[in-house]
Specification:
Strands 9-8-7-6-10 form a five-stranded antiparallel β-sheet. It folds into two domains: 14-126, GMP Synthetase, Chain A, domain 3 (2-Layer Sandwich), CATH 3.30.300; 137-195, SH3 type barrels (Roll), CATH 2.30.30. The longest helix is centred in the middle third of the chain and has 18 residues, at 97-114. With 202 residues, the protein is of the alpha+beta class. The protein is built from three helices and ten strands, in the order ββαββαβαβββββ.
């Protein structure tokens, strides 16, 4: 089951990720929680009148779970399009990773049923209290097994995002478990490593 991030690191930092994962630190397997529909198109093809419809849809799902939607962002500069939903408890407190995952499944189903997006898209559910950047060696030890996003330079110096379970960091590499495969990213190419909220792929 996804683990909750300790309250001590919930600093009100938002997380912008390209996808989410549901995984257990005791398992080598990851579940790809991308929600995609249709064929990829250019960002210019994204409709401009989706905000209200998406907000109403997400509000309904959140209300049933005792949650509240703080913001919805359409990140059209990403391909596929990213639908980012920031959610918190109805009393204004940050959600846990488990609550975040429980919300993402019904929301993804509601989005598919409503057929609001004809473009390919990725659903990201996060919390204002999730997204803490990992910096110190202690961070990388404490959060081994947690889902993370790594922003790094790829081929041609283009920025890339990878997600998986954090395996650790040594003097040369940041190590991730991506769907059961160990991926090594050179530290000099890493721009940022942050905790993310897993989403439910049920």
């Amino acid at each position: 089951m996804p683990q909750s991030i300790p309250e001590s690191i919930q600093q009100g930092v938002t997380s912008e990720t390209a996808a989410g994962f549901q995984a257990s630190p005791d398992s080598d397997c990851l579940a790809d929680a991308s929600r995609q529909s249709g064929a990829p198109r250019s960002p210019e093809a994204v409709p401009t009148d989706l905000d209200a419809a998406l907000q109403n849809l997400a509000n309904g799902v959140a209300s049933d779970l005792g949650l509240a939607v703080k913001a919805i962002r359409l990140l059209s500069h990403r391909l596929p399009l990213t639908v980012q939903v920031l959610v918190q408890r109805a009393d204004g407190q940050d959600v846990s990773l488990d609550e975040c995952a429980r919300f993402s499944g019904p929301l993804a189903e509601a989005l598919e049923a409503a057929d609001l997006l004809s473009l390919a898209y990725v659903l990201e559910v996060s919390s204002p209290g999730i997204g803490e950047v990992l910096a110190s060696d202690r961070d990388f030890t404490s959060f081994r097994g947690f889902p993370v996003e790594v922003l790094h330079h790829g081929e041609g110096s283009a920025e890339q995002v990878r997600q998986g379970l954090l395996l650790g960091r040594d003097e040369r590499m940041v190590l991730l478990n991506m769907r059961g495969r160990t991926v090594r990213i050179p530290r000099e190419e890493v721009l940022c490593v942050r905790l993310i909220c897993p989403t439910d792929d049920s």
